[in-house]
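writing this on my phone so excuse typos. first protein, seq and then structure
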Amino acid sequence: MKNGVGVAQNIVLFGGTSEIGQAILKRVVKPGVANLVLVSRDIEAAAEVSQSLMYEYPDLEVHHVRYDASDAESIVHVVNEVVDAVGDIDVAVLAQGLLNEGHDYYADPVGVVSMASVNFTGKMVLMYSLAARMRSQGYGKIVLLSSVAGERVRKGNPAYGATKAGIDGFALALDHELEGTGASVLVVRPGFVTTKMTAGMSKAPFSTDADSVAKIVEKGISSNSKVVWAPGILQWMFLILKNLPIAIWRRLPL
């Protein structure tokens, strides 16, 4: 629950080593935040990430929980472990995901299983688990890092785009279902973000960086927004792209 000056007490980042997730933490962790939980597969790497925050905010308690985003059946237990560590969850940022740009799914069709498990199936389980907790406590916000790739799935990486389209739609419907409970979902739709994950890839128009995305997320968390775009111009760009006839869409170099 927020303290007397409106600061969230307990913040959780799923994907503790995510560059965008880290940038968001630098924006939302501030004096008054009591607990930060980094949920990640590589706890040691996540611990290094948290050092600067612990130095800047000596009263901040940092907790680590190990988590395999592809293991959907363990996710409920992971959320319970987070709750055992800090109690109620004010803000949960979901930043874990697979890109697998360039993966040859024709040669390895089974590769879509891990993609779907991390980006879609497991994340649905995670969001329902978090939503159940937030609904029972009467407040809380789930921040889902989606992607403009899900707005209209491109041929360049159809597996990734399809999982993003699925989880994006699910998140908006879940937020609608939670209406009136005090819990809510914020969907974040970034364009191309320059991070280690996208290193070596050609930048798309209106590319951005992790800190720019974090600024938009920070504003979104404190608002009643359901969807935010990073950068904002992509909202209008995709309003056009999403509704292009297939014949025109397929001529675009995407």
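second protein below, same order as before
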Amino acid sequence: MFPTFNYSQPEEYRFSHDSVFLARRVFEYLQEKKMSPNTAIDICSGCGIIGLDLLFHMRAAGIQAPKSFDFLDVQSAYQNHFQENVSRLGPVTTTVQFINGNYADISNSNLANEYDLMVCNPPYFSKQQGKLPTTDLKLRSRFFVDSDLPSLIEFVSRKLSLDGSAFILIRNQLEHNQDQLAEVIKLCNAKFNVTQLEDIRGTHVVQIRSLLTT
């Protein structure tokens, strides 16, 4: 429905359309609310689809983009694709960097102290759910291997600025008796507002904000 650009990505693992839909939804939200985040991060970024697509939309609309945008992923195999995608995106005023690291390591010195905007399309499955992929790249992209959902929410709670918003895709695994949306609400433990904005092909778009945010 909306133009974007031709991404570089590994042959063995292609991003899902959930990522581009999330980028567009976040763009529309920022535009509607007239929000101008200064610092941003794409968690579990892979080759940068969500964050770079968001910058693409912001540039096309002529609205102010974040001054800095970090892209955090535990798999270094994505870095060359990320750099190629930055080149394909073309000129932006935002300083972008790929950080090869785990969100469980909150002390990573390459990270900003806090972020006004967070976007994330995390793995949807635990290793107990379904047949595991044969390649390491696909395994770690689709399944929680290097960390888990509680660690992800802890990262968000520690790094989200007071006026910031985090937008995360959450897919319930009800067939495995796993309600991830309920788990996120419980993990936020009345410290944050958790709002389900909509569904993208059966996946929840969840916004997390400070209780002090209006």
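The first helix runs from residue 17 to 33. thats all i got for now
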